[in-house]
# Entry
Amino acid sequence: MSDAALAAALAQAAGQLLIDVRKSGLIEGKALGKAGDQTANQFLIHALQHLRPDDGLLSEESKDTEERLSKERTWIIDPVDGTREYGEARTDWAVHVALSIGGMAEIGAVALPGLDLVLRTDQPAPLAEAANVPRLVVSRTRPAKEAVEVAKRIGGELVEMGSAGAKAMAIVRGEAEIYLHSGGQYEWDSCAPVAVALAHGLHCSRIDGSPLVYNQRDVYMPDLLICRPELAEQVLAEVQDIHA
# Structure
């Protein structure tokens, strides 16, 4: 099985596990989110250790080690991206499975189990036509100040949404044009979404235009821009002007 097919199969299976855990009705709220995280994480970790034993591995839900730093290939996973949305039975949560090669987000899949959908790097679809008024996806609870300001400057509309993966896939799926985040994330929040977005022809970078680099010792990633390529130059220029 190819790496891309494996990423997609694992993301889909983990998503189904999460749906089943929630459907059991035995737990709810924060306890449900914790149980879902642990269940999906154990499945993904054991599967990757069995199927790709020579690769590095980084998961939000497992203790990090330095072993991955010497690996050219490292799997970066987020078993439940958007735990709150998962617990609330919303659709804007995701499962991320990515393979970083040489520090780049090369291969991956993002499952949106609430929509019974998996977006993957080996099956890109043509981008939908952009809306006349640019739509910027932002957090439901803490929209990035740069995103709010850029929306004002370019006459855009803000669209509130849950997880990072759901926001990124909204751009891939043509539900919005821009995902600008500056509130801080970690490598597992964006590696799979960036891999999928790049495969679909979207622009992906830091908000200063520099590349996104993965499998670093410090896995904190301060900011992110995923957008339609024709909007990238304008958005980056506006962010630079805001910070000037």
Notes: The two ends are 49 Å apart (CA to CA). Residues 135-243 form a domain with the D-Maltodextrin-Binding Protein; domain 2 fold (CATH 3.40.190.80).
